[in-house]
Each structure stands twice: as structure tokens, then as C-alpha cells.
Amino acid sequence: MKESEEQIPHLFRCPISLDLFTDPVTLCTGQTYDRPSIEKWLSSGNSTCPVTMQRLHDLSLIPNYTLRHLINQWLNLRHQFDLDPSVVEIKHNLVSQETTFDIKIQSLEKIRSFTHLKPGMNPCLVQLGFFQLLLELIFVNPIELESMKSRDFLKFVEDALFCVTALLPFSELGFLNFLKEESKFESFLILFELGNDSIKMCMCDLVEAISTCEETKELCIQIGKNRKCLQELIHLKTESSLKIILRLCSCSESNPPTLIREGVVQHLVSYIMNNIEKRGRNSLLSEAMSAIDLMLRTESGRECLMEDTNGINAIVRMVFRMCDHEGSESAVDSLMILCQHSLQAREEAICGGVLTQLLLLLQSQCSGSVKTKARMLLKLLRSTRDEATKHGKTM
After folding, report:
1. For 55-84, what is each residue's pLDDT tens digit?
2. Residue 132: which of 188, 100, 171, 93 has the closest Cα?
3. Which positions ≥6 away from 163 have C-beta within 8 Å?
4. Which among 267, 264, 256, 330 has a CA at the least distance from the CA of 299?
5. Alpha carbon 292 to chain centroid distance?
6. Which residue from 64, 73, 118, 381 could staple onto 24, CB 3.0 to 4.6 Å apart?
7. Which CATH number fits domain 1-83: 3.10.180.10, 3.30.70.260, 1.10.8.60, 3.30.40.10?
8. Which is more confidently placed, 83 or 15?
9. Span 232-239, average pLDDT
10. Which residue from 316, 301, 321 is spatially nearest to 348, judged by alpha carbons?
11. What is the Cα–Cα distance from 30 to 26, expressed in whole angstroms?
12. Res. 4: pLDDT tops 50
């Protein structure tokens, strides 16, 4: 019984009871619990989400039919999978030193077809150890990797990474900490640098998973300090790579200096300028503004932003967005920092129309704290404008 319990994928365990879900339901916070467990929690007088500790504004319990379906598939396939000799043979072929590379590729293609055509099998593959096995096959010794940069090997890595990303939601992410080892991390960087677009996108999925897991926080910091990795992420210019950069900004106070040196400030400014006119709320815009605000706490961050011709303009345009009060607060905070340190920043902000933006913000439904900050900034900028007018300057 104990062995059976240990083999339950963590995605299928209730965060309260740690047992297999029997009736998964989702709260307004997006967290899923087993109905008996969360009902007991709420009936005890609790009004928060057990995992996030957010106060619940809605106590509705929404059945999670997708998770229930996956669990049923897993239960049905588990017995078949354990008895299926072909799966055992595939694993043996991948592990064995005597198996030819062609057979390994064929075996991997079978696993890829499982993950793609029969996703309900993915938890079973994780249970049988394929997640760890595939990672070990991908991130081999750097010396071996140098001698294996053939087209066939890169195809093998691409297929293996595709399988790994499919298995990620069902796997214990703490295992990824093996990448902290010097040789494994070097292999990780080589593949990120030299892989094709498909490999790089899979690597992004892997790094994104690392950046969202508390167990892999040290590895996330290690990645955030690595110049090659940051350059690749910036060069990709995809939404996935941007999400990773934003998480690297926030995961450690030691990461921003490296990120600033590698041009992340300019990258975020460019993203804001390219997306600010799009309608609707864009959470990445808000996060990008928050990351800029964080990096402006350093002198090097302020210098980088002031050197960017669109730097001040990007922040000014983020001051008032009706659908994004969080972004507005970060923009006001950022301008306050810049304007307190630089007359040039004050002059550029005024020329960029920040006074109008601040007045619009004060008339909006934003929080009292944001309005207080906006009034302080408005007072500072008006004194600068009045001083310039007194000396005959136009702003």
C-alpha cells in the first residue's frame, strides 16, 4: 500500500490530504482540492485558500472534470501499462549501452507518440521513471555532447525534450536540481546555445517550470546569473522567453545586476512600446513594468533606462491604462525614482505628457495608495515645470 501511494503523481494528490483525488473541485483562486477535504476546511470557519492563503471572495466549488478524467485514465491505464512488455522493452533500449543509436531513436519516437496521441498515459510514463531517464539522456557529459553534435543526436534530443515537456505537469520538479551540477549545467547551456528553434522552445518550457517551483529556486538563480542563458532568452523574443525573464527578475535580489548588464531593461522597454496600444489587459505588460521598477532601484538600472531613447516614454505611457492599475502603480513608482535622481528624467516625462496621464489616473478607480503617489509625483513635476517657465524654458 505504501509503495502504491508513493507512485501517485503529485498532480493527482489533494494538497490537504495528500491522497489521490476522489472528487476534485476548484476554488476561485484556481487551486484544486478534494471535495471532502476542502469542505471540512471551510466548515471549520476558514475563509482562505489553504495553498495561497488568499481570502475567498466566492466559496463556490467548481468540479474539475478535466482532472477527474485524467485520473480515471491513469487508473485504467496503470495496470495495463505495468503489464505491457513493449514499454519495458522501450525503457531497456534507452538505458542499455549495447543498444544501437538507431534503435534508441526508434524507441524514443514510440514514447513521443504516446505523449502526443495518448496523453492519458503521461502519468504512467512518469511513474515508470521516464522523466528522469530522458533528462539524463539529454544532459550528458559535455565532452560526450561535443562528440555527439550530429544531426541524428540533435533529433534525438529534440524528441526527448518534447517528451520531457509533455511529462512536466505530472513530474516532481525537484529532480531538475541535478542540473545544478557543473557538468550538467554546461550541457544545458550548450544545448540552449546550439540547439535548433524547436530545441530552444522546449528548453524555454523547462526553464519556465524551474522558475515557478520553490524547490528549484537555487537553480533559477543560477540560470539568472548566467550570461549565455540570458542572451539566448533575450534573443528568442517570444512570450515564453519573456515570462522566464520576468520570473528571473523577481526570484532573487542577486539577479537584477546580471540582467541589467545583458540588456534586459532595453528588452522590457521594447516590449512595452510594441504592445502598449493593444486593447485589453496584458498581464505581461504589468509584469514588465514591475520588473523595470525593480531594476531602477540600482544606479546601473537607471543609467540603462535613461540611455534608451524610448525609456521614459514607455513608462509615461504605462501611467494610465484603464484596465491595468497594477502597471500604473509600478509606472508611477518608477517615475518617482527617476525624477528624484534626474532633472533630465523630469523634463522628458513632462514633454512626454505625463502630467495629463497623472490627472487621468487621479480621476480613475485606482487605489488610494496609487493616487497618493500620483499626487506626490505631480507636485514634483509641476515645481520643475514652473521653475523652467520662470527661466524662460518651454517644456
Report:
1. 888 888 999 988 888 887 777 666 555 545
2. 171
3. 108, 111, 112, 115, 125, 130, 134
4. 256
5. 17
6. 64
7. 3.30.40.10
8. 15
9. 87
10. 316
11. 6
12. no
392 Cβ partners below 8 Å, 6+ apart? none
What b/e readout covers 151-186, taking b as 16+ CB neighbours within 10 angstroms?
eebbbbbbbbbbbbbbbbbbbebeebbebeeeebbb
Q: Could you tell me which residues come within 8 angstroms of residue 33 by beta carbon, excluding any fewer than 6 positions away?
A: 14, 15, 16, 24, 25, 26, 27, 41, 50
Q: What is the pLDDT of residue 100?
A: 85
Q: Which three cell numbers stand for residue 65?
A: 472534470
Q: Under a CB-based contact definition with an 8 Å cutoff, are residues 131 and 175 in contact?
A: yes
Joined together, the cell numbers standing for residue 293 give 521598477
Signed CA dihedral, 333, 262, 205, 129: sign only: negative
Q: How many CB atoms lie within 10 A of CB 305?
A: 26
* pLDDT tens-digit map of 176-213: 999 999 999 998 998 888 888 899 999 999 998 998 88
* 239 close to 248: Cβ distance less than 8 angstroms: no
**DSSP per residue, 16-60:** TT-SBPSSEEE-TTS-EEEHHHHHHHHHTT--B-TTT-PBPS---
User: pLDDT at residue 37 above 80?
Assistant: yes
